């Protein structure tokens, strides 16, 4: 049995494996995508600095809350309230994500934003801008930045467990250089689903009840001293879980509609909360559909590292492990060397079922 640290390292290395595979497959040798993980990719207004440069420019605070024109920074264990008072500062706020290391200087008591440090990790999804046409409608929406652990929260019932959504969260976590953890809630209402597919892949799994607090303490060793983001569908208990960890009713919660079985968006904005002296918990609004930004059909296979050992023997170098003849991965599935449910998970995402 691996310890909690080795679980995290196992999943943390998956991005490195993906980068290596992409570099081997890319004949141009262009690895610029990986030179600066945190480039905003939007306006040039928001300056991005390396850590050693940033410390010379001002103080650094973590963006904890964003409700333009107002925002909150966590600096030296204290929360500082700020307000963008110019169009330029509002422009900068529009490019920030919760968890960003914000470089600022105080004007009186108001923090003035100067830029951010390079994002070492991010959790991002594909969002469609209905005001734009064709391919320009698709844009990256960063849910949170500079995070260590993505706690994928899913419930046993109300709403029912959704493995398709869990699989998508696992992929975007690896893409963003974030270690995932699966947390199953509402175990007091129903038995947890079969999670052997995830446990066999060395994904840390914790089962909890926010009502009885059973299992909450088992989550603490994984998140202590880290920046953690709670992600999942509406109504699965993300806010309740943070309340359980903080030991206080800090966040509003709501019941799932009994008729629809769907959650309501009690949390409307992303926010960061301090647990003890060094653990940070980020609450996020529920997501009912999750588009995967920056991940196409050609690269999806690289997020299933159990394929790597066998894919080298595929007949075609660019094999997608779906329909091609001479696929060593499909053969490994048939021989029981790769779990069928993990392969089915891959095919679901590949075909967007």
Characterization of the model:
The protein is α/β, with parallel strands linked by helices and 353 residues long. It has three domains: 149 residues, 3-Layer(aba) Sandwich (Rossmann fold), CATH 3.40.50; 70 residues, OB fold (Dihydrolipoamide Acetyltransferase, E2P), CATH 2.40.50; 56 residues, Probable gtpase engc, domain 3 (Ribonucleotide Reductase Protein R1, domain 1), CATH 1.10.40. It contains eleven helices and 14 strands. Strands 1-6-5-2-3-4 form a six-stranded mixed β-sheet. The chain has a six-stranded mixed β-sheet with strand order 11-10-9-12-14-13. Strands 7-8 form a two-stranded antiparallel sheet. α4 packs across α11. It is globular, with a radius of gyration of 21 Å. About 11% of the residues have low confidence.
| CATH architecture annotation of the largest domain | 3-Layer(aba) Sandwich
CATH topology of the largest domain: Rossmann fold
Overall tally of structural domains: 3
Q: Tell me the name of the CATH homologous superfamily of the largest domain.
A: P-loop containing nucleotide triphosphate hydrolases
Output the radius of gyration.
21 Å
- Please describe the biggest sheet, giving its number of strands, its sense, and whether it closes into a barrel: 6 strands, mixed
Strand order of the largest sheet: 1-6-5-2-3-4
N→C terminal distance: 34 Å
CATH class of the largest domain: Alpha Beta
Q: Please state the overall shape, judged from the principal axes of the Cα atoms.
A: globular
Percent helix range:
25-40%
Number of strands: 14
Element-by-element helix/strand order: HEHEEEHEEEEEHEHEHEHEEHHHH
Average pLDDT works out at 82
Strand percentage lies at: 15-25%
Counting helices, strands and paired strands, the structural category is: alpha/beta
- Helical stretch count? 11
The low-confidence runs, each spanning 5 or more residues with pLDDT under 50, are 22-44, 133-137, 256-265
């Amino acid at each position: 049995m691996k310890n909690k640290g080795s679980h995290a390292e196992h999943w943390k290395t998956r991005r490195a494996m993906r980068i290596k595979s992409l570099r081997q497959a890319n004949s141009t040798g262009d690895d610029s995508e990986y030179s600066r993980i945190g480039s905003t990719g939007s306006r040039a207004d928001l300056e991005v600095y390396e850590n050693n440069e940033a410390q010379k420019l001002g103080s650094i605070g973590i963006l904890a809350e964003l409700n333009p024109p107002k925002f909150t920074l966590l600096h030296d264990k204290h929360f500082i309230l700020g307000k963008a008072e110019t169009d330029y500062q509002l422009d900068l706020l529009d490019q920030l994500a919760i968890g960003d290391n914000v470089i600022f200087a105080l004007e009186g008591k108001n923090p003035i934003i100067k830029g951010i440090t390079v994002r070492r990790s991010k959790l991002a999804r594909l969002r469609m801008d209905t005001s734009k046409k064709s391919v320009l409608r698709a844009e990256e929406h960063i849910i949170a930045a500079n995070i260590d652990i993505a706690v994928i929260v899913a419930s046993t019932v109300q709403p029912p467990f959704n493995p398709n959504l869990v699989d998508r969260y696992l992929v975007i976590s690896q893409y963003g250089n974030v270690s995932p953890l699966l947390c199953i809630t509402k175990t007091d209402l129903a038995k947890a689903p079969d999670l052997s597919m995830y446990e066999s892949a060395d994904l840390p799994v914790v089962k909890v009840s926010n009502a009885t607090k059973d299992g909450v303490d088992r989550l603490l060793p994984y998140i202590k001293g880290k920046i953690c983001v709670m992600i999942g569908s509406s109504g699965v208990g993300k806010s309740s879980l943070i309340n359980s960890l903080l030991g206080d009713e800090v966040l509003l919660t709501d019941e799932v509609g009994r008729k629809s079985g769907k959650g309501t968006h009690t949390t409307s904005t992303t926010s960061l909360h301090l647990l003890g002296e060094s653990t940070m918990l980020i609450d996020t609004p529920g997501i009912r559909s999750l588009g995967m930004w920056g991940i196409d059909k050609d690269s999806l296979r690289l997020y299933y590292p159990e394929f790597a050992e066998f894919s080298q023997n595929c007949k075609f170098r660019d094999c997608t492990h779906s329909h091609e003849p001479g696929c060593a991965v499909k053969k490994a599935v048939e021989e029981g060397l790769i779990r069928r449910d993990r392969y089915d998970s891959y095919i679901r995402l590949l075909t967007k079922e």
